[in-house]
Write a structure and sequence with these properties.
The protein is mostly loops and about 425 residues long. It is built from two helices and four strands, in the order βαβαββ. A two-stranded parallel sheet has the order 1-2. Strands 3-4 form a two-stranded antiparallel ribbon.
Amino acid sequence: MATTVSPQELMEVLARHDRYLKKMTGGRRGNLSMADLRGVDLREANLSQAKLSGANLSRALLQYANLSECDLFAANLERADCTGVNFGGADLRGAYLRGAKLRGAILRAADLRGGALLYEQDNADDPERAPSNPHGADLSNATMIEADCTGAQMAGCNFSGAKMPRANLTSAVLRGANLSNVDLDGADLRKADLTGAQVYNANLRNTNLEGATLDGVDLSTVDMTGAHFSLSADSLSDQIQTALKSHQDWIRSDGANGARANLTDADLSQIDLTPFNLSGANLRGANLTGAKMHGCMMVMTDFTNARLTRCDLSEAILDGAVLVNADLSACNMTNAQLAPVDLKNAKGELIGRQWAANLSNSRLRDAVLVGAKLTKVNLTDADLTNCDLRNADLTGSILDDTDMTGARLEGARLPPRE
């Protein structure tokens, strides 16, 4: 059962704990394990390293308190106001934080994995007892705006419905965590481990997921607009990996070995393809949304009907590439090259003809083509609305019925109007 603590007893514990932290005579580490502290006012209190395992702190006022390295194992913090609280290095295993306010809280290196008190069965009929959380702390519906959770151990935690915009979850361990309906807009999840996490209907807009582990995560219902992340080619199916490897052999041997990659309708979204030479590959109808292809060689690659929205094609070599009806909206093509290819016969001799890049009927709305080379490109019926074409070279390009409404053209070289 919870232990009743009078205001006088609480003040005495705080005073002795303060002396303990200062290494003064008469100091004693604060021990409020299993204490009934519902609604208590501990704003700005220093309880660093104190024992609060199993304590009931529901609806407590803890704003800006120091609970770093505190033992809060299986503590009940339901609907507590933990705004700005320092939980750095605290033991929050099995803690119950449903509906708690954690705006600006510090949870660096805190441990929020599963845990349950061995003797809680004796308190099964206690209506104020926090539910057991053997799989991870319960932070459902918590408010964690701008919370610092760097390196926190959060495997199996329940964050469903939590508000976590701009939270710092760098290197946090979130394996198997429930992030359904969570608002993580603008959060930093670099190098976080989200293996097997549930992210149904989560808001991951503008998040930074560089280096994050997303094995077994279903992103089909997630809003990833503006998210910054990429997946290694190792996450692709064995069939696609084999096709890419065979294509590299085909490139290196000038067609003697391997085979040209046929990746029609393949899902390559968010994949980092920078290590690969994709020249001549068939990527018709492929989904390359958010893919990384900075500096890639893609000479005469076929992207007909492909989705390339928000992908990185900066400094890519796309000479003679076919991008008919491709969607390149909001992609980065800074300093990309789409020049014509001089054709050769079987003996490697020039035949006096060129193969120009073809972007007819393509969509390039809001794309960035600063400094891009687009010489002799077919842009018939292409949509370049709001494109950034500053200093781009479109010499000799075909612009029949091309929509350039709102495009930035400072310093651009355009073909003469007929």
